[in-house]
## 1
Amino acid sequence: MSWPKRSLENTDRNRAVLRILAELERSLPDRMIWFLAPTVALCNQQHDVLAAHLPVKIRLLTGADNVDRWTEQAVWDAVLDGVRVVVSTFAVLTDAMGHGFVKTGQLALLIFDEAHHCTKRSPANKIMQDFYHPARLKYGSDAVPRILGLSASPVLRSNPADLRIIESNLHAVCRTPRMHRAELARYTHRPRLHRVWFKRTEDSDLTQANETLRALLHAWETLEEGYDPSVKQMKGFDELKRFVDRSRHVFDELGDWAAEYFIQSSIAQFRARFRDACMSQDGSPDDEATSIATFLSRIPSSSSSSSSSSPSILDLSVEQDLLPVCSKMESLIAFLNHSYTPDFSGLIFVTRRATVAVMATILALDPRTRDRFRCAPCVGWASTGSTGGKKDSLLDELLDIQTQRDTLADFRAGRKNLLVATSVLEEGIDVSACSLVICYDKPANLKSFVQRRGRARQQRSTFVLMTEIDDPSPELRRFTDLERIMIQTYQDDQRRLEEARGIEALDEAMPDTLRLRVESTGALLTADTAIAHLHHFCAVLPHEPYADTRPVFSFTAAMGMADDETALLNGTVILPNCVDPAIRRATGSGWWRTERAAMKDAAFQAYKALYIAGLVNEHLLPLTKKRELRSSGGGGGGDDDDTTDHDSHEESLPSTLEVSGQLDPWVGLAHAWSAPDIHRSLVTIRKKPVIDGPATEDMSLILTTPLAMPSVEPLTLYWDAESTFEVSIETDAQQEPPVAAPAVGGSMLSADEVTTLREITAVYIHAPHSNPPYTENDFVALFHPQMPTDQLPAWLHSVQGRRPAVEAYRLSLHPQSMGLVRDKVRYDAPHVFKQWHVDMDDASLEVECYKLSPRRNLLHPLPPFSPLPPSSPRSSSSPPPSSSSSSSPDVEDTCTVDRLPADQALIGLFIPAVLDQLEAALLATRLRRTVLRDIPFATNRHILTAITAPSAQTRTHYQRYEFFGDSVLKFAVSSHLFVRQPTWHEGYLSEGRDAIVKNNRLTRVALRTGLDAFIITKAFTPRKWRAPLISRCINPPDNDAVAVPPSKRSMSAKVLADVVEALIGAAYFEGGHDMARLCIHTFLPEVPTTRADFSRHRNKKGSNTTMTPMPRNHLLTPELKEHIGYTFRDESLLLEALTHPSCEYDETTQSYQRLEFLGDAVLDMVVAGVLARHGGAYSPHEMTTIKHALVNANLLAFFCMEFARGPTPANAASTTTTETISLWRFMRSQGTDLRVSRDACLLRHAELRASILAALHSGNMYPWEPLARLNADKFFSDLIESMIGAIFVDSEGDLAVCEAFIARLGLLDYLARILNAADPVGVIHPRAIVQKLAKSQSVQYLVQRVERKAGTVVAATYTCRVLLGGEQVVFVDGCGSSEEAEVRAANLAMASF
């Protein structure tokens, strides 16, 4: 088992976490991982680290848990129930295994932090000697856990043989980073070794000592010499002896002021505790405290030893002058000031705890250091009492654990820049790299030297040994020898580093076998260019925060040469985990002297594999061109699977194009009259009854054409605000029984019959006009009454022309038989007859009538508050008049009455609308039978909507279908590419999809297929309308009836693309996804018509023989699977959905980015499907707004954080805490930055949760601002989308199960609230609301990032100014993101309106 060199710090901490994750995934769920550390402080630190990175139940066991009282197996079983990782001291596990509460077989992995302690009869070594080794010898290696040791200094002393002992004890092999020479030479920062010399004050010179110290020493000497030996057995004797010794030590090491401060502070602290004990309920301090109090009463207090004019030494609020310190401390202060820089960070190691407290105080008070160094003490705590100090300490403990709670965090964050510490910071504790490390006292051994030096890891750092001049101590020789070994060790490291540089400087020749030439282009790949190519490939991979996309190289030494610096090396490169696992790892083909050559070999093999897999093109470059990605994404199209040159080039199109004019469907009918196959359609005009109004009669007429007419939806015509008509057209195929045939043989009409029908049609068309609009009557479509053909001539004769009004009066015609009244004075404008007025006195005749309504466009209802007066009801089915009445006094001379009854005459106002609808239906039929011939549309209804632009101003247009077609197209293409290109990473998939579905491409396919000629863009204008005439349609006569008309028109490129998507949406509404895929394939042949087959992808991992088999993953707990609500047949998909791009320890699993790409499209489709089922209550713009709000990344992230099961009560025997199964906890990731950002986001979630939930459950506005403040990392929403993608693949494309999971998240419940018409939720973004309120005024949002101030931990903030018409109306600051700044500013701007 490998034994990393450094402890759990930075990258090595990540390495241990990764090792634990790997063990968790492959070990059985009832096996534990036990992490051991020598101290409680280390246990606490490592527990926090592991708890932040591991999605399993973790338990910390220390003496504070009273483990020594757990004397029954049931208690231990309850404590460890469900626990996968335990963190404890060595002693806890030693005792538990000694009493049989924990068995060797329960452990999967043992991790020894600071493994150099595993010697002799230490608790760490007892675990190995008493339990591990006997079990291994008796039952074999499978019966014992794996071992991982962590140490920066595996040798405690200077004897290298100690290393072999530790290796034997741990049954492990020590491994140091001998490989990666180039990286070591570049990034390893060896500190500069420096000595600070000082001359110590004479020990016997106590004449200059302060009165307090002299009094203490005198009292102690009197106690020892003046009493009998039994005094040594008195209570508190040992405590006082230590106090005197430490006081003298402080005087020697720091000086006179320091000794007095230490003594007075200790006495004051003791007396305060003694008074508290006396005032307690029992009122009796123990004998030891009483003895100490009696002794200390002989020492003068701070107030008595100071003059009345000078402040107490304990009053630290008084600004101090230069403090009297010893020469050693003077040397330290001078060197600190010399070394100071604005970004200074340093550590001072001392031996004794008392020295730590007093030195930190001196540096904080002395004017030479107090303004430069933000100093803090740091000592270790083996166990704690009520005060936080050592349990047995009654005197001289000036520090407590509470004051140190945030010390290390402050140091890491830069709030403190200098720590004074004991050896507690030598090993294990995570401390930031320092620029200066000072050994105030001599390192005790080689281990201390190495570990202290390792804290100076910054560039140009310094490691300082304070050395006494002419040291008279008897230990000088021993330390001199140790110092020599230390310096030799340092020089050996430097020498090995230089040797590594020398080896890497060799230039090894690369063989010709490491060359690849692409024949089609001549592109050449060599070993020398492979590394640059590989780095370029990785550089264009999808960028993901917290993930490193650089290739990682490693090296293996030849067999038996692992410890030889000159060993031959074989290189391996591992690509980022977004690359397909089958080609993610590549190994070099040879063995090399230098790492540089081994890297070239491995890089060549990797890039060659990428080329073979089709991930780089024929020019050996990444597939970054849309054309390459689209052509590579094809499949399933057969002979049609091509993209021609005019469709595939990437030049952008102008926003407006010159396209074909709208196809005229009447041309075909005009030609058909040369050999007609007569078809008759029944046109029925039915007035919709008015409430409480009289019943009306229908009018019917026949439409005769030379070809069959398509079916047309019933047409509503709006006469006025109250009267509407429904016009229905039944083709002869729809009529039951059919319309009576003309009295001629076959289906032909004679020339006379055709002439009669044309004249009747002319009568209808001309009747409502003052003058005939044109004289030609060779109409393409012919109208006549519903009667036998042989009766039509007589009927025509009876209705042609006009009669004088007097004649009409004399004939006593029924009002319903009266034609339109015309007055020459009024230019024969048509009027509707009302009644006659006869004056018997002068025998004059007048006619009262209404002017025929000027409205001609009956397809649209009158706007509200129309100035036209309401119509009077009529008993007939004719339209009511819509203008004021008038009388003509000169009826005999000026008025005429049409022979055609007015009811029949007004049919001429309906014919333009009828033919306009027929024209559109003919156009849709033509499209259905040509471009869309392979799509089984049953009717034209959906097609007609899809090809009608909003500019046509019809009742329906394509925008609604375009909204759904966009989602269907995105979903279909995403599914196809996901299955078709299993090796493509998310970047290629996204670019490939964009290349297929982008508007530029859709515009081109619309032009290529001739779709532009079928798009209806021009509004119906009845006043300019002309009936289709044969003579006008056939011009010149020999023109091909089916050719695209030569006329041109301007059209937006977006309209062309929108119509393609609208037709896809139309197919989806008529025949679901199967029919939609047929439509997609019609325009985009590379997208197959068949459903994407996910079964191959679901079983991909099992069938790939080049990959390591996927082990069963025991991190995927049954609780998680149950909470997801879907049972995976292939759990590797679930594992992939939880794998963040930063996860590097599992080479067999790809990151979730591919599944997230697919899940995004599936989520979009599910939301669109719900909106489609809801009906047409919302406009396309409103649906777009709703969808964007629902799939908003911050909302998805919030639901991800909310998607948790629990909390459930944890075992009562373990703690009173609870546990929650949260989806985000199972994300497989690594990196401190990600964890810190994640935890910060979770804190924001906890703060904002109540307000967001209130808005989601009962608010009437979408929570834009709280979600913007949440500012969630992208990986939270990615987890949701990747989980949807995984379910979709595992279920082989079942949208229903995906919808069930999305509903389980709570997303669809909120969508239902939004769609609830009774209590709707406003989802419009505040910016859009402000723009609407501003109307024509310009609105600008000026966002600015405010960088954090140096020396602070406050993150950068954002400000936003809102300018309305160029004038500032709102300013906000202190926002956590630019989005939050804009939303907050927009909300405030709304209030200004």
## 2
Amino acid sequence: MAAISAASSLPQGINAPSAPEPENGGDVEMDDGSGEYEDVPDVEPEAEPTKSPKEKRLIPDETAEQLYARWKGLLPKLVSPYLQYQRSMSGKEWTRPPSQLSARCRQPENCKRTTFTVTSLFFGSFHTCTIVACECQSLPIVLIAHGLFPTAPHSPRMAISVELLELFLAVSERSSDAVTALAVALNRSYRSRGFVVRNAKGEMIRQPFRRGLGYALRWYDCLRVEIERRKEAAISAKFERSRPLLAPTTLPSVSPTSQPSTTAQATSDIDNTQRPLDEPRPPCASQALPPQNPDPTHQPAPTSSPQPVDEPRTPGAGRAAPPHHPDPTHQPSLTSTSEPNVGPELVEAARILYARCPACFGLKVWGRPLTQGGDVHLAVDGNFNHRHVRNAANSPKFYDPTYVLPKEKVDAVGERIEGARKRVKKKEPAVPDTAIDACEESHESGTGSTVKTSMEKFDSGGLAAIVCRHDIPLFIANIDTPGEQQKYAVALLEQVIELLPRNATIVTLYDVGCVLDRSVTNYEIFPDSVSRRLLFATSIMHSYVHIWSCQLHYNPRMKNGLGLTDGENVERLWSALRRLIGVCRNSAANRRIWLIDRQVGSVAQERRGELGVWLRRKLTKGVADHRAEALASLKKCGVSEAFLREQWVLQKEEELSLRAHKPTKLKKELNQLMGIQDDIDALSKTVATTTAQIKNSILPKSCTQHLKVLQNRLDGIHENAQDMYVSLNVNEEFPSLTGVDLEFVRKIFLLRELKQAVQKRATSAFWEFDKLDRAAGGKDMVLGTKMHQHVRHAMSKKTSALENAVKRYNSEVKHLVSLRKSNCTIPIPEPLPTSIADLKTSTTLMEAVWVDPVDPETHRWVRDAKVRDGIRAMHKLDRCQEELHRLGREADNMLRWYKRELTAVVEAIRDPQNSDLIGLLEQDLEDLLALSKAWGTVLVDEQKYRACTREIMDGVSRVTLTWMGHELRDGGGQSSRTDGNAMEEVRNDDGKLVDVDDGGVTDAPNDLLFDEDDLECERDEEVEISPEDICLQDLAEEQANGDKLAVDTGLLRALTPPELPSSVSPTPRNLYNPVSKRLHAILATDELQRLSSPSGWLNDDCVNGLAVLLHQIYLDSDNKEYVSRFIVFSSLVFRKSRETVIRQCRHLPYWTRDIWILPINRPDEKHWVLAIILPLRRRIYLFDSFAHTKSWQRDIPDIISFVESLNHYAESQGHPPSTTSDPWIAEPVISRRLQKNTRDCGVWVLAAILSCLRGFHVPDMTEKEITVFRSVLYRLALHVPTVGLK
């Protein structure tokens, strides 16, 4: 086997002795101690003297900081070559790059070159590449330009194929970041094919790629992030142009210290600046101005013709929708004020939110009342499984997260909350504090003091996240406290509020939403202008752990406007992130943030694409199924809906009253009183026994006097006990309990406590059963044997405790029945089923024990189970109707975003400033077009998306591409093309196009490599052909000869080359446009050198200057009348902004010319093409000497935009163009390749321009003739006066 050595003793940049490359398998020797390889030999090493262990480094040292700084400085330089490589490989089969790579140096004669040897990793093998870098193109740039990513920022010794890295990153998104597993798998694949890595001792290295692969994956992903953010900035700039604006409004003055954030910053870096949420902010891309409707909970009085808010499409609506409020963005008349006018108000969400969930944040009008569900529904929750050990070594910061909030922002919110708790606001609570206290004590997340993670071992206890109702994550926060404090939920919610309009209303679902709502109500955690736009509820799965009175107000199924939003969206996010728990626990802290942030972004992008599936599932399994079930329950109930609503209002009023919660406070005092009563009963029994014994002469009669004293004391104690009972104000708090036996009251209060205990135990047991069922059904992670046994053991313990609690409760119910008197109207609670399955479906489990007498006619919901079932069905039917309307609005939002995003992407593709991002933008365009089918629903069907697509694509380009195979008409003279294979491409062994002539650029401009005999022979048989015979009349008018195009076979005979001057002046030559008489181009020494050399590539000044020179020559000929129909534009005005095009072309009377010549320089391809534009006929004739058609797909929209910009300006100046409404037609003028090398494209374009000026469509020349034509152009340029041609 062959061996390759890479000795570490050699300086960087100097190659080790070369050896044959292991093409068909072989061993590679690598040195020990390499910074990029972890050498672990298979053999056991010899015993070495024990060394003192080094202290583990927890923070990055200066060397690591310098390494990461070099990486950060390198990445921006890799963007352009990487994009060029990606574009060159788009749609092509991957091929391995050659073994010898060289930099494309701009100044090869002055640039110092250095040779490197790099081991390159590919899919099935690795091999050693020899790479020549220079000062202007370093080794990493040369590598990335050929599809190889370095593993070190300076002089890397290993590089990895970007296709291989793309595959690894795609696998990581679906599994986890297992660098070691990937490295081992790659090494095993290599070894199975005979590619073995050895160290300098000849020992096989077990993990030769782990460290280098880890670096490459990390920094390659950072390169992708940099490019993604550039692409997003390009799309965002176009997207913001269609942002709706309100009329100008007068706002309070803004503090000069406040700085508005931009959209680009919002998409990459989260603003750390803390400001009051009610502080006025200037309008910008990510923030909006104060609302016009300050109180969204207030239902405004309807006007004579109220305007609906985003009226959705609702199929088959059988029930009336809740009334909509008038448009809150209506501007009142402005009065005179001294406050400054800051301009129009923005009325939509920031793009960072809009792009993450178009369904939630795509509203046109904001400010929907909270009684109707508000504008958006969000869910917040924490997870303490994503912990991070404290003693894990950290790396320098290398990634700016998009989703993770900065620690400084979260801590600032926590400090603000602590300060706000010192100032209590007195407000009437919606739910009594006793109920909220009970919920807070029963939840681990209810109080931030509950320790969930040992912070001595972990520096991060978990994660908190805020997610929209479509399961799309918006932001996450790192938990660094032992418990789940409120600052995390507040910081996440505040981050969203800052990116929404000032009148946006938000519903937030949280496990302990009741506790957070009380904190917001009692303390100024949010300003009043914000807190009144917030509504809190509990998540549906956790709501059943709350006591019944709390559920009446916070359960989303009992709250108006919330539809079928369940609030468990964060749990589904934790399920998607669970694979990162083990990976991130011991990772570096900054690497952990990178992994989590990128994984969250991947989840968000995937779920945005599944919005259509989400909507269809909600319509069928959500609305349709629940609606059918609710209608069946209502029919079975047999009670009118109006009566059920009256019963619900009465139930909520009764059970949320403060009097309903007095038993909790009264219970302890009653227990003390009942203890005294037990003592009284025992003493009374003793007195009675003693009296009987005296009467039966068992005791002497002398005891009678003492017995009377004891009886008097007993009567006094009994009277005191009655006074104590009266002092409890039971009759005042519960007047209906007047005269009720004290034992009965005590028992019913005891039952109330017992049932609450049963409810808590039942909820906990149901949770364990659900966890096991979901794992068995495949909805959740499969449980291992140990975890399965643990769950089963916990279930058995909880089931036993639950059964005992239910039995005791039922026993107390029977005892209460025995104590109840016949005239008592207090309802007796129903016994509970002892079976877990029956208990889970019981409708009375969550009902509270009623302690007041009730009227069986007015309080039927207390005694009648059918009425209770009917109330639940009524709620479910209301929620289904609300959900249907919300789904309709969300479907409209998605269509609206699709239209704006598609327009923005298309405009970004057309923008010449984004030429390097074309490939990525086109991929985004394809992904968007795929959404038209994925997002189609019965609310907004696929046809609407297709119509929207046609409207945008037709409105932007209006081009019908007709790639016609033209038959060439001979324009006179004999065709010089004699070899039928003359148009074959010349390629090297690697399949790449090469030049036939490898000559270099000459030093002297008059040192020509042309044969003078070639020039003379072309003038022997000169034939005069007038443009009237064969001209471009076919172009300006309808083609009379079908698809036949005129071929210019006598182009060289039409030009008389002047003699070479005796000396060439180095003074630049100014070339003026013959139409405007303004400077068009400058031919300096560099341009003349390019023109004189057969291998010189013509730049913009060469092509633009010679084009107007040819135009001037033919304007001075006998064909002036025909040539005056032409106008030549500069290539420098193409792909510029509309303002730039008008500024540089307004001096040209282009509206008087019907044939426009536009040379086009494609800098990314280093290739010249030509467009002949007929604006009156809306035709474009395209000339490409390579006969390629794919690249024109990108140029044609820009050509149309160029023409329309000039036409609009001409019309504004009183020169309306006489154009038709027909679509544009673009046709190539050649169907097979004319150019064989890679340098003469500019000369071919000038030949095509000359053919057009002579009245032909296409030149007919050989490679030899094009070289002669170049010499003619050179001589013409030398005869241009150095003082300028006017």
